[in-house]
Amino acid sequence: MVQFPDFPANDAQPEPAWPRYAIYFAPEPGSPLAEFGADWLGRDCATGTERVQAGVPGLSPERLSAITASARNYGFHATLKAPFHLKHDRPLEALGDAAAAFAAARAPIIVQLGLRSLGGFLALMMTPPDHRVMALAADVVQQLDGYRALPSDAELARRREADLSSQQEALLQRWGYPYVMGEFRFHMTLSSRLHDGPERDSIVAALEPRVAAVTATPSAIDAVALFRQDQPGSPFVMERRFPFGG
After folding, report:
1. In a domain, 36, yes or no
2. CATH number of the domain where residue 53 is located
């Protein structure tokens, strides 16, 4: 049963201990793509269970764990609507109903994924980019925005540490996240930012055959998933997945 969080009596800035929610694309649990992500990152975000990570020659398990720590915490996914607090008058059940209705009106989008670098982060990305997925992400951001509480000043300050462009700043103020609409890039993160060198080369060499095994055939963007983070720093877990077409 869906649990409802406690809300304050007004729409003040959210307290840090509130749960956060996000709308992601995440592959169907148990699918080859989902299993690849769980094995590489060391956690199954559908169940919340940890896994022993597959090794990388020349890299200690501790170093691989550190390189994948942030991606592991968020879960294997592509962000559609970035983490947000719920408005005090919008229960979780209503957000779930809205996500279900959104998904029911959509059809799967078939894309080709490949291993790429995005600002130094290794990720699965579309090759080539697909405007239909960009439109899907924009629709998620806009149509579910009525459930998003305004970010706190501290949250905005953290986003601005990335030295945002004027366009990204405008998007941050309007949508609570700077990498939406024209700034959106579909990606499923696999590492922290890596510098060119032997370590990065070893990780790429280890990833390439594993990625090839799950991207030999095109992938389907066929659902949106509601993720939940119970408190700051805790891992995100899939609350529910909504397949397209109902």
Report:
1. yes
2. 3.90.1140.10
